[in-house]
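Entry type: protein chain
Record version: 2
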Amino acid sequence: MLRNLLIVTFRNVQRQKFFALLNISGLAIGLAATLLIGLYIYDEFTYDHFHEKLDRIVRVNQTFIWGDTDNLFSSTGPAVRDVLMDEVPEFEAAVRIHQPDAFLVTYAPDGHTPKVFDETRVLAGDSNLLSVFTFPLMSGNPKTCLSQPNTVILTQEMARKYFGEERALGKILLFGENENQKPVKVTGVLEDIPANSHIDFDFMLSMSSFPRVKRDSRSWIWTTFVTFGLLQENTSLESARAHIPRIQQTHLNRFLLAYRGMTYDEYLESGKEWNLYFQPMDEVHLRGDNVWSRLNEVSSMENIYIFGTVAFLILMISMINFINLATARAANRAKEVGIRKVIGSDKRSLVLQFLTESITYTLLSTVVAVLLAEMGISLFNELSGKDLAFDVFQSPLFLVILVLSSVTLGILGGLYPAFYLTSFQPAAVLKGKFKAGLSTSGLRNTLVVLQFAISIVLISSSLIVFDQMSYTNNYDLGFDRSNKIIIKNADRLGKEKLRAFEGELSQMNLVDKVALSVDAPPFMRDGDNFYLDGQEKNKVPLNFNLVDEDYAEIYDLPILAGRNFFEDGTETNSIIINETAMKSFGYQNAEEILGVNVNYHDVPLQVVGVMRDFTYSFGEIMPAAIMPLKSSVRTMSYRGLSVSLKRNATQEEVAGLLASMENEWYDFNNKVPFQYTFLDQEYASLFAPILSFGKLLSVFSVLAVFIACLGLVGLIAFVIEKRNKEIGVRKILGASIANIVLLLSGQFGKLLGIGLIIAIPLTWYGMSQWLNDFDYRTSISALTFVYAGLIMITVALITTSFQTIKAALVNPVESIKDE
């Protein structure tokens, strides 16, 4: 029986090659897109799942204490770990991961040219790191490899990078430069960190390599540590959380009294919060978008919902095509069904026949989809920023699920056509009184409207995403970011050489001004607490930067009141604050705060100017300040050298300027790499995840429209076939080619209009929710839907025009000669 079913199935496929091709192509593309999105979602859900103790690991988050925001951050002070071990018996262990600055790392074997690299993926961890997390060592002792100062474990990739095929264990690497360079011993080599790990690094230094950690071990405000706790087996997270109020009341109370001279209750009464939160580690990646992550970018469940919905919609369009074409071709199968019924076939066997055909189509489509997915995985990775691998044979379970899913889709897609086709009355069919195909136009039209609506939702959503990108990219940040080159890690030249290098740059033809600072936009120092004289209990967290006298001019930061720093660079106790900081100190008039002392760790700083608010990142505007490079408050490295160009330069001119800068750099120090970036590129990198999201959404929108168009091709071919004689008669009676084309295409225009009406409120609601996540967001324009509709109309007309024009051009004699 199965053999007979398959024979009949393949005969029908051969007899209707065109429609079979449309069906298989549409299903294959839809399934390929669904497979890739499914792979993306699976990767997102399995983040950090390689840790054997994942179900017992929790991350400690806390209130963002450096600004007025409802979001949390995953950074804590170094004191938190010891407090957890002392106060929470549910914790078996606690471990900290510290994020120091980037390091210049040198390997200098005797008699060989040193290898020098600038390494940014450097972390530091407590000695028990590998007993909590599963980062397998290829060599070294996991219990002792991070126990001693000046030791490091590194990944296999880094071991090959520095030592080639030599044994890395015991080798010495030099971390830092100039007088700060220190030898560090390699005590372990790790397997490369999985791509779906939110703890991502190339080097893990021992925590004891940083003396300040021990020195400030009681600090709660040196918030550069990510603290994790390992729960005891069979212990409830809720019971561990029950200790948090006591910890805050006891230890934060003690710290605040010593640091600010106020109790924890007084701190809360001032309108501020400082709370700890325990978050299971398996929620960090997808349910941590309200927590600022120090170690890695996080995603969100919203992205999963969006891409899951996109996959469902694309698959739905594919299945709609399948159902539409199957029911449209019913007239050609009517006599077959009638004869089969007359000679004794029952409804069950006919249903089975049509379901077999449907399942055959989906299985063939699945094979093609797998090939398409394998070919498209590289492009998908490039767009998504992932490093996914697609191998259908990698997991037997995946292969079984794929086949079962394909069969299920075949059954679901074939149920209605099967029962519809088997409902024909044989007498009516054989007498020629049955008008199959046209009788299902209501259902087909409904499904076509649904296709159009889905396509327009995806197109308009893509347009809104790119509107938001354009809006953010062109948003007035309050300072000038055009024609700026940032030379990174400028302090590596040393102070004397740096000033000389700065002088050489200022003499170059294209260079307007050069400014030295601790950080360059979009970065500033993390906030610290400042207070007015006599108001020690009312401290204001200010993000700040140490800059020279040209900084404000280069970035066009208007001084609303007061003055800029003196040009001789001798000031040490001055500060310029922004408008938000001024209001945070209780002043509404910029003139009134001039001359007032703002204190930082008992160092008085005189307010000499108030500058306009500017956005150094794309969060809310925070209280901020700039201080002179020689400020008394802190000695810091001058890492950012901002170079402002006189005008817009050609690509060749900029390349020549960069080459000259690089030559000058190496004249001063040929052992340190020359690194630069363009300021507009730095800001663009902030939006890389959103840009990837927009590109992926656009690609899938194009695929959805393409699949819908395949269905249109089949339906218009069916309409032309059924109205062939009508077209001939109309032409004989004087109808023009334009009349015929409009007749055949007009009904799809009406359906598209209905689809647009359905799509507008759905898109408006969904994308409004998405835009709410942005501090600076565009509005949804009605023109977006006009453009989406025009795009869909244009594509639909192009899709159908070839066949409709061809039908209109046919000699009417050919259409009606058999009458």
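Comment: The two ends are 41 Å apart (CA to CA).
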